[in-house]
Design goal:
By secondary structure, the protein is mainly alpha-helical. It is built from 17 helices and no strands. The longest helix is centred in the N-terminal third of the chain and has 43 residues. The N terminus and C terminus are likely disordered.
Length: 435
C-alpha cells in the first residue's frame, strides 16, 4: 500500500518537475540572450555615441554648438515620442519579437549609410550635418519603437525581488562592451586619417548594432497574444497613459526625471570642453566614449543593490549627487586623471536611467504594463530633451561653458525637490507588473 502511494506520488510529481525544469532552462537562455545583446549593444555605442563622437564629428565640420545640440535633441526626442505609439501598435504575442528586431535593424542601417557617405568623401558641412541628423533620427525611431517591448521581455525574464540586481547586471554587460568599444574607437580615431576615422566608426557602430539584434534570435518569447486594443490611438492615450500621469506620486516622479533630463542636456558638451582643456586629438573621443560606457560597469551594480535594499528613491538621489560632482569636476579641475574621473561620474546619467529611474517608475505603478510605464516615462522627458541640448549649445556659443553647466546643475536641485515631493515609495515587493 505504501509502495502504491509512493508510485502515485511520483507519477503526480514527475510532469510538474519536468515542466518546471524546461521553464527554468528557457528562462536561463532568455537571460543569457539579453546579457549578450547588452554586451554587443554596448560595444557598438562608443562608435556612434550621440553624447561624444557625433558632437566631435560635427565640431570637426565647423558646425556651431547650437546645431551640435540638435543631434542629441533629435535622438532623445524621437526615441521618447515614438514609444507610446509603438506600445499601442505592437502587442504581445508570436510576432512581437520579430517586429522589435526589425525596428532595431532598420535603425542600425542609418549609421551604416552615414559611415559609407563619410568614407566616400562627402564632407561639406551642411550635407554632413543633414546626413548626420537623418542617421541619428532613423536610429532613434527604430530603437525607440523597439525599446518598450525590449523592456517587456527583460522584466518577464526576472522576478520582482531580483529586478534591481538584474538591471544592474544588464548595465554591467553594457559597460563591459562599452569599454572595449571605446578602446577600439580610440584606436580607429588615432590611426586613421580624419575624417575617414569618423566614417569607419559610424560604419562599425551600425554593423555592431545589427549584430547585437541578431542575438535576440535565441530569445524564446511567450507566444500567447496580448489583450486586443480597442479604439483609436487617442483613446489609448486617454484610457491608459493619462490616468497614470494623473496619479500624484507618479506625476511628481515625472517632474523630477524631466528636470534631471534637462540637467543631463549638458552631457554632450563635456567631451568638447575636456578636449579643449587638454588640447587633445580626436582619439580622446574614443577614450571618453569608453569611459562613459565604463560608468555602466561600475555604477549599476551599486545602484541595483541600493534600490533593492534601501529603495529606488535613494538610488535616484545617489545618481543626482554623483552627476553634480562630475559636472563640477569638469568645470573646475585640470589634468587627464581628474577630468576623466569627473566625466566618469557625470556619465552616471545612463546607468541611472537604466537602473534607478526605471526601477522607481515600475514600483510607483506596479499595476500598469511595463511598456506603458516605460513609454510614459520617456514621453515626459521628451520636451526638455528636444529643447534642452539646443538651448545649452546656444548658451555656450553666446557666453561660455560655465553659465550653461551651472544652469544644468540648477535643474538637478529642482529634480531633487520634485523627488522629495513625490514622497515615500512602497518598496514591499509583492506585486508583479502586468506584461
Amino acid at each position: 500500500m505504501k509502495r502504491k502511494a509512493e508510485t502515485a506520488c511520483e507519477i503526480a510529481v514527475e510532469p510538474v518537475t519536468s515542466t518546471d525544469s524546461f521553464k527554468h532552462l528557457v528562462l536561463h537562455r532568455n537571460r543569457a540572450a539579453i546579457l549578450a545583446f547588452e554586451f554587443l549593444w554596448g560595444l557598438a555605442m562608443p562608435f556612434v555615441s550621440v553624447m561624444v563622437l557625433i558632437p566631435g564629428y560635427l565640431k570637426y565640420l565647423g558646425v556651431d554648438n547650437v546645431w551640435i545640440g540638435l543631434a542629441p535633441s533629435i535622438h532623445m526626442g524621437a526615441i521618447a515620442l515614438i514609444q507610446p505609439f509603438s506600445a499601442y501598435v505592437i502587442r504581445p504575442g508570436a510576432r512581437r519579437l520579430k517586429q522589435m528586431r526589425t525596428l532595431y535593424m532598420t535603425g542600425s542601417g542609418g549609421f551604416v549609410l552615414l559611415g559609407l557617405l563619410v568614407l566616400y568623401g562627402i564632407h561639406a558641412p551642411l550635407f554632413g550635418l543633414c546626413a548626420t541628423l537623418v542617421a541619428v533620427g532613423l536610429f532613434a525611431v527604430g530603437a525607440g519603437a523597439g525599446d518598450p517591448h525590449y523592456m517587456e521581455i527583460v522584466v518577464a525574464s526576472v522576478s520582482l525581488q531580483q529586478r534591481g540586481r538584474y538591471f544592474g547586471l544588464r548595465a554591467v554587460c553594457l559597460g563591459l562592451g562599452g569599454i572595449l568599444g571605446g578602446a577600439l574607437t580610440g584606436v580607429l580615431l588615432h590611426f586613421a586619417a580624419t575624417p575617414l576615422d569618423f566614417g569607419y566608426c559610424f560604419l562599425a557602430g551600425g554593423l555592431l548594432f545589427g549584430g547585437s539584434t541578431l542575438v535576440l534570435l535565441f530569445y524564446r518569447d511567450d507566444p500567447a497574444p496580448g489583450a486586443a486594443r480597442h479604439g483609436s490611438f487617442g483613446d489609448f492615450l486617454r484610457e491608459r497613459i493619462v490616468p497614470l500621469v494623473r496619479r500624484e506620486q507618479f506625476r511628481w516622479y515625472l517632474i523630477s526625471i524631466s528636470c534631471f533630463a534637462l540637467a543631463a542636456c549638458g552631457l554632450p558638451f563635456l567631451p568638447l570642453l575636456i578636449k579643449e582643456k587638454l588640447g587633445a586629438t580626436n582619439a580622446i573621443y574614443g577614450w571618453l566614449g569608453g569611459l562613459a560606457m565604463g560608468s555602466t560597469l561600475i555604477m549599476p551594480w551599486m545602484l541595483g543593490i541600493i534600490c533593492d535594499r534601501w529603495g529606488s528613491r535613494r538610488g535616484f538621489v545617489m545618481v543626482l549627487f554623483l552627476y553634480t560632482i562630475g559636472v563640477l569636476g569638469c568645470l573646475f579641475l585640470d589634468g587627464y586623471i581628474a577630468l576623466f574621473i569627473s566625466y566618469l561620474l557625470a556619465s552616471i546619467w545612463l546607468p541611472g536611467s537604466i537602473v534607478s529611474m526605471t526601477n522607481l517608475a515600475l514600483k510607483l505603478a506596479p499595476d500598469v504594463p511595463t511598456s506603458e510605464v516605460f513609454s510614459t516615462k520617456m514621453v515626459a522627458m521628451a520636451p526638455v530633451q528636444i529643447i534642452g541640448p539646443v538651448l545649452i549649445g546656444a548658451m555656450i556659443d553666446d557666453w561660455s561653458y560655465g553659465p550653461a553647466l551651472w544652469t544644468c546643475l540648477a535643474c538637478v536641485v529642482l529634480s531633487l525637490l520634485a523627488l522629495w515631493r513625490c514622497g515615500p515609495v512602497e518598496e514591499k515587493l509583492t506585486t508583479e507588473n502586468i506584461n
